Amino acid sequence: MTNAVNINEVLDGHVSLEIDCVDRLLFNAYVPNLQVGGQVVTFLTEHLGFPVPSPALLEKIGNRFRREVKAFAAEHNVPVLTLKKPDRTRWDDRKIDHVRPYLDKAEAEGRTGVVAIVQAQEFQWVFSAKNRSSTPGVVSFDFVKEERRVGIYYFYILDADFGPGFIKICTYFPYPAKVWLNGHEWAKRQARHAGIAFRELANGFASCEDPAGLQAICDRFGPGDIQSFFDHWSSVVPTPFTDDDRRAGYFWELSMRQVEVSRTIAFDDPRRARSFFESLVQDNVGIGRPEQVAMVFQAQLRTRGPRRTPGPFRTRVFSPGTEVKIDFSFKHSRVKQYLILCSQRKKCSRHEDGYFVDMSLTHRPRGPNAWFRPRPGAVREPVPADRGAVDFPAGDG
Q1: How far apart are CA 390 and CA 253, in angstroms?
Q2: Rounded CA gap, 349 and 356, in Å?
């Protein structure tokens, strides 16, 4: 019986390109001093100067924002697209399907800027006013957060450095927003500026004449690039906040919602990719080929103290048709490893040959205190909110 080949032996001498890069990024944009009811009262009375903190004032701000979006679209000849109402589990329309032609057209013409605005309705946590007074003719409002289906604007942008991205802004107070970007698209554009030739995947790299130079570009991607994108485009598109609001400290800060970190391995021969997965499954599963494996993380895990770390932690090994995929999750993170049988991560494209392995990590922390603050080229664990604002987180779209 021949000895099984392990992963290192499969990789040795047969990898034509290996790149680690930040992939899709999604950020929350929130106003730190508009998170509780008392802060809403302060905003309306001390900042805006109204004697009564009425919810009618918030409605006026939202209506002004909607008018400014329509005026912006008309002035810049930006199409406004409307999506069907979603339920809580799925979209009736996919935003990117509607926006893709406008992004492609702007790319072909060498234009940058807002290429489309998508108008939709989604569930968001927004403030509602409750009258706590029991005296007839007397009102005393409490502002509480509720999850409601409200109006949303997606500003789809083609940026010179990042390529496609969007800023999503809610039309209801306190106007929660999100920002979506792609690190691979940023790296492609930086590589072109540096004169590094490469063959691209739909969302990544298939080959490169200077792998070390390309990896150096991917490594230098950092929080400042994200902040620069947001600072610039939030000053271009309409927002519910005025310049006076911003000078008074009422403006968005960014926190991480989702980050994907990807490693792409390109092999010199298709059979090497198959051998990679054969070895990977054998080295790490070791119990045959079940469709679903729960025993990999079956051990009881504990944090500091007696409290037990919540599960479950599962691993799945897929073999649909000729494709292979390994997918496992741990707490709020998910790791996927899968084979690309042509030139994309998730779909097969006809115009290029090759076999690529994509290993991507997705992290989605929960709760308002899951801030993200890594150094360029690295990913760190979330840090508490009291240790500073976010600088780095990513999808929608």
Answers
A1: 7
A2: 12
The Cα–Cα gap between 253 and 258 comes to: 16
Q: With the CA atoms of 10, 11, 16 and 17 taken in that order, what torsion angle do they form, in degrees rounded to the nearest 10?
A: 140
What is the distance between the alpha carbons of residues 181 and 256, in angstroms, rounded to a whole number?
A: 12
The three-state secondary structure class of 375 is: coil
| All structural domains of the chain with their residue ranges | 1-24+181-219+254-372+387-397, 32-174
Average pLDDT of each block of 10 consecutive residues along the chain (397 residues)? 57 77 92 93 94 91 96 96 62 70 93 95 90 67 90 96 96 96 95 94 87 95 94 96 95 90 76 64 53 48 58 54 60 65 30 38 44 35 30 31
CA distance 162 to 235: 17
Distance CA 228, CA 124 (A): 26
Alpha carbon distance 257, 28 (integer Å): 6
Q: CA angle 234-240-242, nearest 5°?
A: 80
Give the phi and the psi of residue 214 in degrees, each rounded to 5: -65, -40
Q: Which two structure tokens, joined as six digits, stand for 374?
A: 């890594």
